[in-house]
Q: What sequence folds into this?
């Protein structure tokens, strides 16, 4: 009589077949795995290993005693974050600037991509695309110098223009009123071209037959954009939006530091510049590490929550 196959035997056969398929897949695409090794090593060395240093957030860290010799203080550094009166206004600035950047700066690349896609003269389209994209390669130090020069109260172009209407020169970088607008607008000028390239690439992948069918049905250009282009690039918009949400509190140190001075710091200082001042200048390493962990946890919660909400509403998400 033939031996009766047990359910456990079926499981072993299935696992063996699955393992063979995995190894066959790896052997087939081994060059891709090979070229990914340097990237993996980079993230392990510069991203994952430094995470172990976050333990000093629970210590009263002393650079001479090191991690092993510094005394443990538990959650005292985290309690200090919200007990320190100076931190709350800085957190408010960070949230407001991040919100302004999300509301005003995030849609700009989408609008630019849609407008550029409507241009029919390819030479003009490429020139405009290049001009918009070029500021992305400039460092924030150079951008800061350009903005300072343009907004200078004595020689700046903006003050010369408003002077033609009889308005007295304004020291834009010397007043709290303007610093947030300067930060957002300079970021739009520098980085909107990069986002535009991404959206143009997504638009280029749309099936042209959809537009031809819409034209045959008599749809206008605006109707085609609204009913075909935007829904087609919606997955790209959602992914970039979720990534933006994840970096909501990470506005960028250089982006703010080049414009910051004692006259505008009340509305301009954010968590990143505060960590630099308190951590590196004042050497409060444990305290600022606790702030960094707080910011990372908030970012993780935001991206997980927004990803879950996005998958329920649009069906699209990061994972």
A:
């Amino acid at each position: 009589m033939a031996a009766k196959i047990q359910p456990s035997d079926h499981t072993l056969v299935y696992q063996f077949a699955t393992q063979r398929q995995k190894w066959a897949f790896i052997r087939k695409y081994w060059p891709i795995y090979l070229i990914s090794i340097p990237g993996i090593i980079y993230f392990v060395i510069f991203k994952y290993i430094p995470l172990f240093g976050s333990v000093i957030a629970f210590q009263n860290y002393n650079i001479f005693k090191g991690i092993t010799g510094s005394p443990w203080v538990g959650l005292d550094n985290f309690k200090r974050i919200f007990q320190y009166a100076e931190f709350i206004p800085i957190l408010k600035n960070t949230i407001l600037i991040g919100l302004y950047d999300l509301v005003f700066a995030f849609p700009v690349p989408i609008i630019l991509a849609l407008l550029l896609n409507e241009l029919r003269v390819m030479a003009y389209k490429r020139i405009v695309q290049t001009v918009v994209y070029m500021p992305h390669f400039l460092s924030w130090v150079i951008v800061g110098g350009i903005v300072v020069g343009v907004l200078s109260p004595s020689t700046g172009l903006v003050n010369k223009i408003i002077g033609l209407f009889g308005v007295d020169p304004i020291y834009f970088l010397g007043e709290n009123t303007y610093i947030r607008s300067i930060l957002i607008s300079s970021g739009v000028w520098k980085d909107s071209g990069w986002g535009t390239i991404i959206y143009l690439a997504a638009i280029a992948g749309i099936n042209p037959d959809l537009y031809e069918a819409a034209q045959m049905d008599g749809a206008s250009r605006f109707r085609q954009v609204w009913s075909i282009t935007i829904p087609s690039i919606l997955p790209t918009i959602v992914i970039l939006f979720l990534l933006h949400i994840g970096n909501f509190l990470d506005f960028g140190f250089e982006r703010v530091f080049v414009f910051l001075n004692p006259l505008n710091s009340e509305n301009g200082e954010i968590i990143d510049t505060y960590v630099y001042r308190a951590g590196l200048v004042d050497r409060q390493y444990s305290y600022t590490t606790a702030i960094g962990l707080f910011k990372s946890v908030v970012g993780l919660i935001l991206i997980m929550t927004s990803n879950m909400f996005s998958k329920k509403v649009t069906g699209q998400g990061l994972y």
User: Anything to note?
Assistant: The mean pLDDT is 86. Residues 77-313 form a domain with the MetI-like fold fold (CATH 1.10.3720.10).
